[in-house]
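Table S2 (text version). Query chain:
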Amino acid sequence: MMNSSYHNSKAPGTSKTVYPPGIHTLREYKEEKQRETKKSPISSHHLAIAGAFVLMIGAVLLTMMLQPYFEEIHLKRMSSDWGVALNTLAIVLIAAKVCFLIYLLVLYLRYKPVVSVSDDALPSCTVIVPAYNEGQLVWETLMSLAGSDYPQEKLQLIAIDDGSKDDTWYWMKKAKETLGDRLSVYQQPRNQGKRHALYRGFQIGTGDVFVTVDSDSVVKKDTLRNLVSPFAVNERCGAVAGNVRVLNDKKALIPKMLNVSFAFSFEFVRSAQSSLGSVFCTPGALAAYRRDLVMNCLPEWIEQRFMGRVSDIGEDRAITNMILKQGYEVVFQRNACVYTNTPERFRNLYKMFIRWERSNVRENIMMSKFAFGDFREGPKTGTRILLLNQWLKILMAYPATLVMFYLICTYPLLFLSGTLIGIFIFSSVQMFFYARKHNLAESLMAYPYSIFYAFTLFWITPYAIATAAKSGWLTRELPESGMAQRAA
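Corresponding structure-token output:
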């Protein structure tokens, strides 16, 4: 799952772009980075892939060399009740994961995106772009939206500056000068958070469909019409999730790894969820909602609390839950693409994941209150299976962490080799999927990303569970470039 947030759940330090001389747009910047990547025969991602394969091949060789030792450990463990229980639990969990992947594959094979409908059939649409400390990037976002192949008389563009401390308001007004009456810009009196900025947009918007787009994102020409088309052909469609891809994947190693992870999360997992009409999260980077359903839950959404505290994160997962609760379907449109910036530094990355996981804990609780009841017409078992899988991950977070530390302390070689071999097996699923859909060379990044996550971010879920009541964006400081961009 991917739970979106302000700046598409990314740190401001990654979303602000200062272009080199002679480069004026994101497209030109990305093309230049691609040229630079091609010039270098060995780059960081090549080293990461090589390092990952060295580790995984080393794990296989280590297992072969120490096979008698590992068999002795296995026999010793199986001689005790505790060892038998642990071994049985491991087998059950692995079997459950494999079965769930097969289930997702079956659902994925059933999925087909809705083909764009005609101009006459498209509903009126209000696009809301909340922004905080985005600088020139918000201008790029608004320009890409204005260039959409969507009937102008049916399209309303709204941009809201949520009390930015940099030159975001300047770039919004600059976009307004270019687009004229096609764009309306508003400024919050002070920073109140993304949820309040969206709330204002929902109250102002007049379209039959609301579309939310993060202010560090760029859409394709046909994105909006593809995103909104399901509403025209399915009266039970309450919300649509867009297909989020990485914009800055040529700039740093982390975005390059996330590019493969995002593709699997959206194009495989959400495609499978969409076959059930139960996409769990409509990402803030690109999502669409039926207007009347938003207005039905708007008071509850803006006043949402968790353990007595105001919820200022997870607004996208929350509104998705509230639409599902009303008995409507939430689907995914693979052909509605948005390109968005992702973290480039480890610190920003783990803060993003903490926020996502806290939201998952909160919203899984909320969803459990209605998902096991008669919340809508038609089959509901698939939706419940998806939810139970999420609960399994949460419930096993602490036991798995304790077992991990036990194995590290008692059988470090067994733990290391077993973990790396497991990573190779399960990461190959992502690798083959990405290679088939996109690019073979880039697909190999699935392996270093899985190793990176397993050994540096394993603590995210346990920590998020323990701190689920905490609020705060964690990454909304002013980018270092500040006002320098306007001066340039």
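Notes on Table S2: The chain has a mean pLDDT of 89. The radius of gyration is 23 Å.
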